[in-house]
Task: structure prediction
Amino acid sequence: QCKDRHQGVIALIKVSRLPNESDLKRDISQYEAPLILVLDNIEDPRNVGACLRSADAAGVDLVIFPKHKAAGLTATARKTAAGAAETLRIYQVTNIVSALEILKNNGIWVAGTDCDADSKSIYQSDLTGALALVMGNEGKGIRPLVKKHCDFLVHIPMSGTVQSLNISVATGITLFEALRQRTQS
Result:
C-alpha cells in the first residue's frame, strides 16, 4: 500500500510469519550474552516502531512482543521503526510469561522496568551479560504476572514532577544505559 508520504523511496516487501515461542526455544542458544527487548502489551503502533528503532540503534539481539492485546507490527509501526523492523529479529509470542521462562531456562536474566519501591536505578543495576529488559504498557506498565516473573526490577531516576516517561523514551534510555555498561565492561 503506497501513499503520498513515501519521502522519495518506495520498497515492496513480503511480510513473512514472525517467529514464535517454538522458534525462540530453538534459536535462543545461538546468542552469547544477548540483549533482548520484551514489549509487554504496548498499545500504540508508533511507540512499538520507536522502541524498535531504539532497539536497533542500541544493538539489541532480539525483540519479543505479544500476539494479542498489543499494537503488533503494523504498517504504522514499521514506518515509525524506519527500517529497524526489517533488520531486527522479532518474535511474536502468545504468552509473554512462557517466553520469559524460555529465556530464564537458558541463563538469561529478566529485568522489568517499574517505578515501585523494590526497583533499583538503571544506573546502579548490572545490565551486562545475558539480559532481557521488559518494558510495560503505556498506561499500566508491566502486568502483575509478568512482573512476578522478572528476576529484578529497575527504574529511571527522575527529578521533575512527572511520574513517568513515554514508553519509547524510557526504552531508549534503558537500552542505551545497557549499551553503555556493556561497552565499558
